[in-house]
Amino acid sequence: MNIENEQELYLLVMNAPVGICVLDSETLTAEIVNDSFIAVAGKPRHAILGNFYWNAFAEVRQYYESALENAIKEGKPYTANEAELVLIRHGKEETVYVTFVYTPLKNSAGEVKKVAIWVLENTLQVTNRLKIEESEKFARTVFYNSPVAKLVYIGTNMILREANEKMLEIFGREISIIGMPILDSIPELSETKLIEEYLHVLNTGEVYSNTAQRIGFIKNGSPCIGYYDYTYKPLYDAVGNIYGVMFTLIDATDQVIARNKLEEAELNLRGAVELAQLGTWSIDVATKGLTYSDRLIEWFGYDPAEQDYNEVIPILSQEDQERIARAVALGLSAESGGLYDEIYTVIHPKTGKKRILHAQGKTVFDPEGRPVRMNGTAQDITIQIEVQMELENQVQQRTEEIAAVVEELTATNEELEHTNLQLIHSNQELEQFAYIASHDLQEPLRKISTFVQLLESKIEDNLDEKSRNYIDKIKNAAVRMSKLIRDVLAYSALPKNKEVFEDVNLENIAQTALEDYDVLMDKKGAVITWNSLPIIKGIPLQMSQLFFNLIGNALKFTRPDVKPKIEINCTTASPEEIVSANLKEGVSYHKIQFTDNGIGMTPENTKKIFSIFQRLHGKSEFEGTGIGLAMCKKIVQNHNGEIDAKGSNEKGAVFNVYLPMNTVN
After folding, report:
1. Which of 7, 216, 450, 633 is deepest in the core (most CB within 10 A)?
2. Considering its fold, how many domains does the chain have in total?
3. Is the pTM here over 0.90, yes or no?
4. In this model, does residue 160 exceed pLDDT 50?
5. Whole-number Å distance between alpha carbons of 167 and 96
């Protein structure tokens, strides 16, 4: 080769876009190093040219020295494709990807005299490809592990290309259906609009969504109906053509059923509101708008038509206006818990008629604690208040008469004075009981009897056996309630003496209470168990009321979605328990324990609950008058016993009833 050709070859090597380094095969000294090689190496030329090759690349020597030696000895090239190297480039350690070849250069005798190292950096291409592969791997992982059912259809025949486990679970099919036309494996889909909607998305590229659609699948040979939210999203190939559709499906069956139940409950609530002759109202805090039901519009003689709720204040009795304005403002504050409960008088602006209303409301707050809306009801209690006032006047008059008699008889003797004090106390109890019997018991009972009779006469021809049984149970319950009121009134007039005590089998008492609550127990799925209960000396009616109230209390204060479980356990009270309950020492007592799994109570409330009219929960949460447990305490004390309560908000409530063994009053 002449000098001119050698010069051209040298220039070609030096300017080649591929890195080239030529080594002497014996000394491994770099004789030629072009710019492209320098760029890949990231080292100055003087560190490579004329130096032992592995001095410049000591960081990779242990990995590729033997490969270079084998290429020289065997005279065969060695190729490393996209090798991952950790090089010191520009003074810093870097991870790079390179493709390089050790090419032996032989003389005419076939001896290896030189080695050419060809290098091409692939770092950018490799990292981009790895990112794409990682992205695809992540996407597939998300697809197959998604809690949302997903699949991919392709082509007009809807070939099932991919489907995750959630989708196969909804279909009720095995993974073997992948790769088949969907109608071959799930023919029931032909009766839905899913095929038509898929073809529309495939042809137009429009995303399509639907909610709460009723779809039926055949699972294990049986039809399975559900409600689903779903979305079709088109898939595009590299040139922008639609080749398939991703289908996302969410089972909304529980939500739809819950919504339907809520709508049914709202319908029942409206019926109950109408039956109870309640008016409803609502305050929109943002606009201060007030809305009334038709019954309230009639009572107030005023339709607020979403006007400022403060405008209704002047319609109230003047002595109530300032108090009600403050109560509404307090009810709209978080400090009050959002509760509003007031009684006031409203004066009809046209007729001048006065009504006494009992209004209750509850405020809804946003997540930040700001009031959004207060909703409530109102009840016309004019007649009840008038009766109560008349009763109070009579009681007051009677009390004054008794006080006058007491004052006249004070001078007689100490025994007569003590008798008069007992009479005053008796009349005070009579005042409480008369209010309860006339207001909280007799009036609702009359309404129940009246409405049941009206209901029975209206739908008598359409009653099936089960419905008639329910109506009979209501009527029987009303009869028992009426008898109970009469018996209790009679009992309150009796003196406490041994003649009213008799043998009472508590087993029979408990069984009767269960029969009274059979409908409620079936509705709530309640279970009531007890061990052997004793026969005691007592008043049967009062023992029935005791068990009825304690079991009813446990069935009322239950946890949502938790089936009530009530246990009645009878043991002999220990001496320590007798002292703790402030009972008479030296007397044996039965300890009858009522345990439930309901909402329980806080320790500080265990004594409050036995006070008459004491309520631990709002009327909107649990029904009741607040006298049940007070009556229980009085009944137990009438039998020379005691009752206490324990419990927590996590484990339910425990009531302990202590009754003397085979003793009379």
Report:
1. 633
2. 5
3. no
4. yes
5. 42
Neighbour-count burial for 213-238, b at 16+ CB within 10 Å, e otherwise: bebebeeeeeeeebbbbbbbbbbeee
Segment holding 656, helix H or strand E: strand 652-660
Q: Identify residue 534 by its one-letter amino acid code.
A: P
Residue 265 resides in a domain:
no
Q: Do 307 and 278 form a contact (C-beta atoms < 8 A)?
A: no
Of the candidates 467, 493, 519, which is a domain's last residue? Answer: 493
User: pLDDT at position 204, please?
Assistant: 93
Judgement on whether residues 118 and 207 belong to the same structural domain of the protein? no
- The pLDDT-based confidence of 333 (bands split at 50, 70, 90) is confident
How do strand 92-106 and strand 371-380 relate by DSSP bridges? unpaired
To 5 degrees, how large is the angle CA 6–CA 12–CA 18?
140
In order of 344, 354, 356, the CA distances from 299 in angstroms are 13, 9, 10
Q: Do 51 and 8 sit in the same domain of this protein?
A: yes
The Cα angle at residue 384 between residues 380 and 389, in degrees rounded to 5: 130
Question: Are 511 and 400 found together in one domain?
Answer: no
Residues 299 and 437 in one domain: no
> 443-451 — which CB contacts under 8 Å span 24+ positions?
443/384, 445/478, 445/481, 445/482, 445/485, 448/474, 448/478, 449/475, 449/478, 451/275
When mean pLDDT is compared over 84-88, 314-318, 392-396, the highest value belongs to 84-88
The Cα–Cα gap between 599 and 622 comes to 11
Gyration radius of the chain's alpha carbons: 45
Higher pLDDT pick, 330 / 419: 330
User: For the sheet containing 642-648, what is the strand order?
Assistant: 527-530, 565-572, 589-596, 652-660, 642-648
Beta-carbon count within 10 A of 69 CB? 14
- Residue-number span of the structural domain to which 224 is assigned: 146-257
One-letter amino acid for residue 339 of the chain: L
Dist CA 637 CA 639 (whole Å):
5
Residue 1: predicted pLDDT: 46
The first and second tokens of residue 257, run together, are: 């059923």
- Contact 282/377 with Cβ under 8 angstroms? no
Long-range CB pairs of 368-373, under 8 A, 24+ apart, other chains included = 369/334, 370/285, 371/285, 371/332, 371/333, 371/334, 371/338, 372/285, 372/286, 373/282, 373/283, 373/284, 373/285
How many CB atoms sit inside 10 A of residue 647's CB? Answer: 22
